Amino acid sequence: MDIKEKKVLVFGSGISGVAASRLLLKAGAYVTLYDGNVTLDAKELKARVLDARFGVGKEIKVPFEERLTVLLGELFRETWESLSLVVISPGVPTDLPVVVQMKEAGIPIWGEVELAYAYSKGDVLAITGTNGKTTTTTLLGEIMKRYREQTYVVGNIGNPYTEIALEMTDESVAVAEMSSFQLETIHEFRPKVSAVLNITPDHLNRHHTMEGYIAAKKNILRNQTETDTCVLNYEDETTREFAKETKAKVVYFSSLQKMEGGIYLEDGDIIYHVGEPVKICHVDELQILGRHNYENVMAAVAMAAAYGVPYDTIREAVLAFRGVEHRIEFVAEKNGVAYYNDSKGTNPDAAIKGIQAMKRPTILIGGGYDKESSYEEWIRAFDGKVKKLVLIGATKEKIEKTAKRLGFVDTVLADGFEEAFDICVKYAQAGDAVLLSPACASWGMFKNYEERGDKFKELVNQL
């Protein structure tokens, strides 16, 4: 779509919306940056888009200012009837009445990812799944940086794809973490190599049903062809079924069984067996813990190998990788107690992985924003490791009720995060672990899981 001199609405003023607005301005569009929050400052938002520190740089001209409008509050029909395109941010539900009305009026609805893809060059390696996306994306980014100088790590990982799209050349590679929210609004987006790590219930408050959630995830491979590759988790029944619906070459990864034509774990060795079997490394050589992380490594290795990265380059990056912040991150040992920050455990399945990685009796901080998740499997995974559960946030009573129904009664309800931490310190004995792995999002108490994890680390380091 040629959007030069066209009117485009960017729906949502977060980092994705700001980055999308900049790209559109550079492409010659007339941009309306819209947000329903009337408490925001329109002048500040406009300045944020046009600030040279945020990537528009020396290209800022007076016409840019004239082409950008910031609109807050209600979105009236007369505002959007003349639009050529709407770009919605990932946080904007696609079933909002005004979005549905614009779609019914024939206005194309794109996400920020689709916009970036339309204006970028080079190849895309894209990762989705309920859990493990950030670790896998970060590791694949480290591998690709050793192989291709123009490597960009973008997407749900916190770096908007639209921020770098116009910088990309035919030699560029974008390693992209894709959320279900981002994948809802793709049309032509086509990764050269894709991966779906796993599918477990999450974001049902947004997608309403598991079928809707799965359909969004499946979009990552919708446009792939026979010349592309899709990496799938063989041990996940849902992702295994995806193989029947893609034209791409499928490479499976498995932590439980050998498989020719895939990558697997055998006696602690990670073996890539597409053609002749190649040992990548032994898990004891890795600097990250847990079977789920071995699966993340296998997925990243399979993607890089499918793209043609030499095995020695892959191996060097894998052995050097130290994991990602807020994901089963060792903070410190204080008075014989080990403190782990797993703030990125924002759903029950992710939090199960945090518990499984613990090798000490554990006092666990859980709870937070209610995404309408079920907590039974998480509580069953305590399996004698969790000695006390300290609960916070909107879900604390719901989780406590579930825990007691399942026979786990050693729970404490805290009024706030710092109180929960103090309770953990009070009950922890030398040889124990204190784990922040909430199984819930941070909203309502913190801006994001990063802020929650940073607060936990601050409290630990003050001991």
CATH class of the largest domain: Alpha Beta
Helix residue percentage: 25-40%
Task: Tell me what portion of residues adopts beta-strand conformation.
Answer: 15-25%
Shape: globular
CATH architecture of the largest domain: 3-Layer(aba) Sandwich
Q: From the helix content, strand content and strand pairing, which structural class follows?
A: alpha/beta
Query: What is the count of β-strands?
Result: 20
From the alpha carbons, calculate the radius of gyration and give it in angstroms: 23 Å
Main sheet overview: 9 strands, mixed
- CATH third-level topology of the largest domain: UDP-N-acetylmuramoyl-L-alanine:D-glutamate ligase
Count of structural domains: 3
CATH superfamily of the largest domain: Mur-like, catalytic domain
Low-confidence stretches: 53-60
Question: What this model shows, in words?
Answer:
The protein is α/β, with parallel strands linked by helices and 463 residues long. It folds into three domains: 101 residues, Rossmann fold (3-Layer(aba) Sandwich); 208 residues, UDP-N-acetylmuramoyl-L-alanine:D-glutamate ligase, CATH 3.40.1190.10; 133 residues, Protein-Tyrosine Phosphatase, Chain A. 36% of the residues lie in helices and 21% in strands. It has a nine-stranded mixed β-sheet. A hairpin with a 4-residue loop joins strand 13 and strand 14. Helix 1 crosses helix 2 and helix 7 packs across helix 14. The longest helix is centred in the middle third of the chain and has 17 residues. The termini are far apart. About 2% of the residues have low confidence.
